[in-house]
Amino acid sequence: MGMSAKSRPPMLLVASAALAAEALALLAYTVLTVIATVTNQAYQVSNSVAQIVMQVIMLVGLVLLASGVAKMRPWTRTPSVMVQVLIGFVAIVLLQAHRYDWGAPIGLLAVAGLAGLMTPASLKALARPMPDRSREGKPERDKPTAERKAPASGKASKSGNPAIRNRAGKQVTRRS
Question: With 70 as the cut, is the pLDDT of residue 95 above it?
């Protein structure tokens, strides 16, 4: 399906590596959250547990996306771009909060991931194949005029006008 492993665009591997690195960063943050919960440093244990569950769900999603992008699966393009945009926003918030230790690397990963996904070769590699649009399956209105069936002989067959015609071919009008 699509390109072979030899013709995989290098920037697609950059995008996959960025997603994998973001997954590792989320794993590190999840471990820190677990440690804070276990050592009773969390503000509320129930909130911390819910946060850990959400982080694990997001972690699984990031790993699946990184794997899918590396395998050039078309379904990964849109969610990967959306994740990079979201992570870019998170990086901006972290930078505005003066958390440069987390914000700068995450921002650079988001930019690298977007750059890797948006190069023309990567877009082509992740594109879905175009469907074969043969003429047999098309509705009548989509076919060129020459391929359309001629209207059945009858009342409106001479001009294609739906008005009623008599046997001589003249239009019959109805007056009330």
Answer: yes
Write the DSSP assignment of 125-169 as a string of letters: HTPPPPP---GGGS-GGGS-GGGSPPPPSSTTTTTS--S-B-TTS
pLDDT band at 1 (very low <50, low <70, confident <90, very high): very low
Q: Phi/psi at 78 (nearest 5 deg)?
A: -65, -50
Instruction: Give the tokens for residue 87.
Output: 């992570």
pTM: 0.68
Total Cβ atoms within 10 A of residue 138: 12
Distances in Å between the Cα of 30 and the Cα atoms of 53, 145, 154 are 9, 63, 75
Asked if 136 and 32 count as a contact pair (C-beta separation under 8 A), the reply is: no
Mean per-residue pLDDT, 28-42: 90
| CA angle 131–136–137, rounded 5-degree value | 55
